[in-house]
Design goal:
Elements lengths: L6 H18 L2 E5 L2 E9 L2 E5 L8 E7 L2 E14 L2 E11 L23
Antiparallel strand pairs: 1-2, 1-4, 2-3, 3-6, 4-5, 5-6
């Protein structure tokens, strides 16, 4: 069964769907000093609102609220259904610790207690 809605009703539903996505989204993209809200995210990219999103390329940072999640290298973008869809070539997870330049054995003690 096929439902056909009038054009105005369909546009209103689409607008309400985009507004709900924008309200519930916590993910943000930081491109230098600019911050943009992410509407949708998946394994290969993310989508921003078409009117507010510039054509970005290069390295951007992805945040979940105030927590730095990852750094992404954007290589392509296309506009569809009121969204600007970005794909990335590389996504590196952000960690809270500095990388080590040596091997640390799993059974190595974290700290040594002094002799008393």
């Amino acid at each position: 069964m096929t439902d056909i809605l009038p054009r105005e009703v369909q546009e209103g539903l689409d607008r309400a769907r985009r507004e709900a996505l924008r309200r519930n989204a916590r993910l943000r993209v930081h491109d230098g000093d600019e911050v943009h809200r992410v509407l949708r995210a998946w394994d290969g990219g993310f989508a921003l609102e078409a009117g507010a999103a510039p054509r970005m390329r290069g390295l951007v940072d992805l945040y979940d609220g105030a927590r730095h999640v990852s750094q992404c290298l954007i290589v392509a973008s296309v506009e569809e259904d009121g969204e600007r869809v970005f794909e990335y070539k590389r996504m590196t997870d952000a960690s809270g610790t500095q990388p080590l330049d040596f091997y640390r054995a799993p059974e190595t003690p974290v700290a040594l207690l002094p002799k008393v």
